[in-house]
Amino acid sequence: IPKRYRHPALEERLSRRRTAQEARSLLRCRRAGISAPVVYFVDYVTNSIYLEDIVDSITVQDHINSLQQSGNDTSSLLVLAEKMGELLARMHDEDLIHGDLTTSNILLRPPTEKLDLMLIDFGLSFISGLPEDKGVDLYVLEKAFLSTHPDTEAMFKTLLKTYAATSKKSGPVIKRLDEVRLRGRKRSMIG
Amino acid sequence: MALRHQLELFPGCGVTLLLFDRLRNAAALRKKAMEGSMEGAFINPAMIVDPFQILVAANKAVHLHKIGKMKTRTLYSEIIFSLSPNNNISDAFKKFGISDSDTSVLIVLVTDGEKTVNVEDIASQVEGQQVSLDELPRLTDTDKIKKLYKITPQEEKIGTLLDSIVCRMSTKDVL
Q: What GO molecular-function term can you cite, just one (chain A) (predicted)?
């Protein structure tokens, strides 16, 4: 989607770079066995990516909402949280930062009960091994999570627990996440 | 018996696939292809898992042809190049193009708009038996394909071989 306030030449380069990065991230995911849509065609003229259509999928966001509405939620939400923690740990272990983690950017492939998760929308993704970047990635998800889904603190806690157990490099990442959380609330970083 | 398909992104552009087995004149066909005296992309069917693989390559080739950004000289050579997971042109021809000793060939023809494809004309120059595209799996060399495209074991768990191949074909320019 072109941003009209940007200088045209810059817009073209930025879109192109984003498109390339998104395509690269999608391939990187699949090579590592992390579920992401298949790329059919990349058009560098319009900077569009033609992806696999995941028929009858729903977003984790919609799934959580419907589970909470039906009241039947607690244990299935925790299992879902474990699956999410595992998926994100594997992604971060590939040094892939999603950049826009929200529950609407994770799909559940049919049948929903299988909890077969797929990551989508890698437009803001990049490669980094830094715990800071991974911590921020998780922080973005945490904020999106808690603001979109009420009473899910336990769910997110489970997510992080599984993340820490699955990822080989989780220690420094969780540490950074704690630091980023503090930064978010307190303006001053002077001790 | 031939498989015909319209390219969704390029309406009016049709792709025709012809499969021949018990081929006897592979060397002659290769020569004609190189000279440009015979229309079509001559592909080794052992490297193809599904017609969709060809459509993805053809779609990319047509797109690049239309914007004047092909890496090879003709549309047909570009289709063969698009099949390759890497950016080495001569390697693509060696691995995906027809070789003198091949006993089968997949011929791809592309028509844009009014031009129709003369299948009989092409078939008459092929010394072999035309078979349905349903026979393609019998000719596919899955192990060779997995090795060439460097498919990882974890990847096989989340999708089909075709998925892995198409992903590599479409994203190789950013690697």
A: protein serine/threonine kinase activity
